[in-house]
TrEMBL record:
BP GO terms, sorted: lipopolysaccharide core region biosynthetic process
Keywords noted in UniProt: Glycosyltransferase, Membrane, Transferase, Transmembrane, Transmembrane helix
Keyword check for Secreted: no
Gene3D superfamilies reported for this sequence: Glycogen Phosphorylase B
Pfam families the UniProt entry points to: Glyco_transf_9
Gene Ontology CC terms: cytosol
Taxonomic superkingdom: Bacteria
Name of this protein: Glycosyltransferase family 9 protein
TM ranges: 6-27, 115-135
Lineage: Bacteria, Candidatus Niyogiibacteriota
UniProt xrefs under InterPro entries: Glyco_trans_9 (IPR002201), LPS_LOS_Heptosyltrfase (IPR051199)
Length: 380
C-alpha cells in the first residue's frame, strides 16, 4: 500500500504539471455559470482535528446568515464528522477517504461549486479545489512557509495571510470578506440532537445524578502523549472536587480510556461520587458536556465543544500559545505554566518534545484546583 504522504506528493505534482489544462477547464466552466443562481460554497477545515473543526463553525453560520439560499458543503473525515452532523447551516457533508481521492474529485466537480474556502495552510485543500475545477479559491497562508506551500499557494486567487500568535478563528472569518461578509464574529456552534439528550439523561439517572447535583466533567486524555497532564494529578484534582465542593465527578473519554478511568476511581475509592462515561459517541458527547456544571481538560477537542455550548471550563493549556486558539471569556479559565514560554502553535513549527513536556509538568494541581474553586463560586 502506498503511504498517504506519497499519494499527496503525487497529487501535488499532477496538479502543478497539468495546471494549464485545469485552468482551461475552470475558465470554460466559469463562463457558463448562471450568475442568477445562489452561491455554491465548499469549506475545507482541518480534516482530523476536532477542536479546529469546532473553531470553523462560525464560518458556516456567517455564510448562511448572509446567503441563506446558498448551498454549503463541508469536507471532513469520519473521525470528526459526528460533531457537525446536526449543524443546520450545512447542506452536505463530504467525507475524505485517502483510498478514493479520484471519487472525491469527481463528486466535488459534479456539485459545481463557485467558491472554496481552505482554512488550513497545508496545500491539500487548495489542490483539491483546483483539480475539482472550483473557480474561486480562498486560502489562509502563513509566514515562513515550507516549500510545498510556496509551490502551490499561487493556485489561490483569494489569499489571506495569517500571522503567528494571533487568534486563528478571526482569520477564518476574515477570509469571508471575499464574498462580502464583514466582521461576523467568532462564536462557535455545536448542536445537540434529542436522541443524544435522552441517552445522556437516562445514563445520569441510572447513576443517581439529580438535576440539582453539581457535576464536574473531567477528560483525562489529550490525544497526544506530550500534552498529557497525568492520571495522578487528575486523581488528586478529583479528590479536591469531591471533598471541598461535594460535587459529583464525571470522567469522560473514549473506550480506550476506560482502564485509566477505572484505575483512578479505584484509587479514589469513591465509585458513587465518580462516574465513568467512556462509552459515548462523538455525536453524544455535546449532550454529556452540556450536563456539566464545569468541565476540565487539557487543550483538546472537548474543550472547544464545551466552549461552544457555554459550559464553564478550565483549559490546562500546557505548551499551547493561548493567543492563537484557546477559548478566553468570563466562563473560561486558561491554566498556563508560570515562567514557561509557549512551544506549541497552530501553524508554526513547535518547540522540542522536551520543551512541551516541561510546560505541562510545570502546572501543579494546586493551580488547577484554585481555578476550580473560583469557577465553583461563580457557577456551582
Amino acid at each position: 500500500m502506498i503511504p498517504n504522504r506519497f499519494k499527496r506528493i503525487a497529487f501535488m505534482a499532477k496538479a502543478i504539471l497539468l495546471s494549464p489544462i485545469f485552468y482551461s477547464m475552470i475558465w470554460s466552466r466559469a463562463r457558463r455559470r448562471n450568475k442568477e443562481k445562489p452561491l455554491r460554497i465548499l469549506v475545507i477545515p482541518q480534516l482530523t482535528r476536532l477542536g479546529d473543526l469546532v473553531c470553523a463553525t462560525p464560518v458556516f453560520a456567517a455564510i448562511k446568515k448572509k446567503y441563506p439560499q446558498s448551498f454549503l458543503a463541508v469536507l471532513t473525515t469520519d473521525k470528526v464528522e459526528g460533531i457537525i452532523r446536526n449543524n443546520p447551516h450545512i447542506d452536505q457533508i463530504l467525507l475524505y477517504k485517502s483510498n478514493d481521492l479520484g471519487g472525491l474529485v469527481q463528486k466535488i466537480r459534479s456539485l459545481r461549486f463557485d467558491w472554496s474556502f481552505t482554512l488550513p495552510v497545508s496545500p491539500f485543500g487548495l489542490l483539491l479545489s483546483f483539480v475539482s475545477l472550483i473557480p474561486r479559491r480562498a486560502k489562509l497562508m502563513r509566514e515562513g512557509r515550507p516549500a510545498s506551500e510556496i509551490m502551490t499557494d499561487w493556485l489561490s486567487n483569494a489569499p489571506l495571510r495569517y500571522y503567528h500568535h494571533t487568534y486563528l478563528p478571526h482569520a477564518y472569518v476574515e477570509l469571508l470578506e471575499y464574498i462580502h461578509i464583514h466582521n461576523p464574529g467568532t462564536k462557535k456552534e455545536v448542536y445537540i440532537d434529542s436522541e443524544s439528550e435522552k441517552r445522556v439523561a437516562a445514563f445520569l439517572s441510572e447513576h443517581g445524578v439529580r438535576k440539582s447535583d453539581r457535576l464536574v466533567g473531567i477528560s483525562i486524555a489529550a490525544g497526544n502523549a506530550i500534552k498529557e497532564w497525568g492520571d495522578e494529578k487528575f486523581t488528586e484534582l478529583a479528590s479536591h472536587i469531591r471533598t471541598v465542593h461535594r460535587a459529583r465527578v464525571l470522567f469522560l473519554g473514549t473506550g480506550k480510556d476506560g482502564d485509566r478511568v477505572d484505575a483512578i476511581r479505584k484509587s479514589l475509592g469513591d465509585d458513587l461520587g465518580c462516574i465513568k462515561a467512556t462509552g459515548f459517541s462523538l455525536m453524544e458527547l455535546p449532550a454529556l458536556l452540556n450536563a456539566c456544571t464545569l468541565f476540565i481538560a487539557v487543550d483538546t477537542g472537548p474543550i472547544y465543544i464545551a466552549h461552544a455550548l457555554g459550559v464553564p471550563l478550565i483549559d490546562i493549556t500546557g505548551p499551547v500559545d493561548i493567543r492563537e486558539q484557546p477559548p478566553e471569556d468570563e466562563r473560561s479559565i486558561l491554566i498556563a505554566p508560570e515562567g514557561v514560554p509557549p512551544s506549541s502553535f497552530v501553524f508554526k513549527k513547535p518547540g522540542s518534545a522536551e520543551e512541551r513536556r516541561r510546560a505541562v509538568e510545570a502546572i501543579p494541581v494546586s493551580q488547577v484546583a484554585a481555578g476550580v474553586d473560583d469557577m465553583m463560586k461563580m457557577y456551582g
